[in-house]
Amino acid sequence: MIREYPQATPHGEIKEIFDDVFLVTGSVVMAPGIQLSRNMIIVREDTSLTLISTVRLDDKGLQALDTLGDVKHVVKLGAYHLGDNNGIDDPFYVDRYNAKLWAMPDMNHRQSLSTTNLLTPEGELPFKDVLLFSYETSKKPEALLLINRAGGILISCDSLQNWLEPDEYFSDVAANVMGKAGFFRAANIGPEWLRACEPKASDFSRVLTLEFSHLLPSHGRPIIATAKQEFTTTFSEFFKM
Predict the structure, then answer these.
(1) How is the beta sheet containing 21-31 ordered, strand by strand?
(2) H or E stretch at 214
(3) 148 near 213, Cβ under 8 Å?
(4) Which of 61, 79, 110, 200 could anchor a disulfide with 137, C-beta 3.0 to 4.6 Å?
C-alpha cells in the first residue's frame, strides 16, 4: 500500500552520547497549539543501526543518519507513547529502509504496519549486550532496554522521563499545561503514562534490581552517571518504597 508520512517537525542534530549510542531531540504536534519535545535514540552495532522511539528527520538529518550506518531495525517500546500519535514516524523509517519493526505483544501500529519481530524479555533483540525489561502491571505494554556497557545505559519510553523545564521545542501552551500537570521534574515517572496505565510499585522495585547508571529517555535530557540514585529517590516518593 502507498502510505502518507507526516512531515518532519523541528529537531536538533544527532549527538553521540556514548560510543555507538546517539540521541536526537525533535518535536511533535499533539494538537493545534500543543507542541512538545521527544527524543529518538540510535544504537549502532558494526554498520547496523537501530532506531528507538522514532522521530522523522528532515533531509539534512537523514543525510547525517545515513553517515552513521544502515538502518535495519525500528523499536517501539511503548504502546501509549504520544497518545493518538503513537508510532507516528515508524512507517516512514520501516518503508524507507525496509527495516524490521520490533514491538511487544499486543501493540498496534499505524497505516497497516505489522510487527516483524516480537520484543520479549526472553527473546531475540536487535543488537547484542542488551536486555528487555517489561512492565508487568501496566495496562498497556511498556518496556525499557538496558545496554550492558558503560555501567548500564537504560533507554525508556514514557515511564521514565527527565524534562527539567520546557525546551526550545515546546509551544507556550504546552509548556503551561504540562507544567501544571507535573511533567517538569528531574528523574520523573511520566505523569500521563502513570495515570493511564496505572503501573504498580512492584514494577518499580524490579527496575531498581537492574544494573544501570545512565538514562536515555524518549522525553527529556539524558541522565549521566546518577540515574539509578535519582530514580531510587523518585520511586520512594511516589510509592513509599
Answers:
(1) 15-18, 21-31, 34-45, 48-52, 70-76, 100-103, 117-118
(2) strand 214-216
(3) no
(4) 200
Tell me if 230 sits within 8 A of 223, measured CB to CB.
Answer: yes
How far apart CA 76 and CA 106 sit, in angstroms, is 12
Let me know: does 57 contact 6? Beta carbons within 8 Å.
Answer: no
Whether the pLDDT of residue 1 is over 70: the answer is no
The answer to whether residue 132 scores a pLDDT higher than 80 is yes
Domain boundaries, the chain: 15-239
Nearest to 167 by CA among 175, 157, 155: 175
Is domain 15-239 given the CATH code 3.60.15.10 in the classification?
yes
Q: How far apart are CA 53 and CA 89, in angstroms?
A: 9
Cell numbers 503551561 label which residue? 176
93: which 3 cell numbers? 523509517
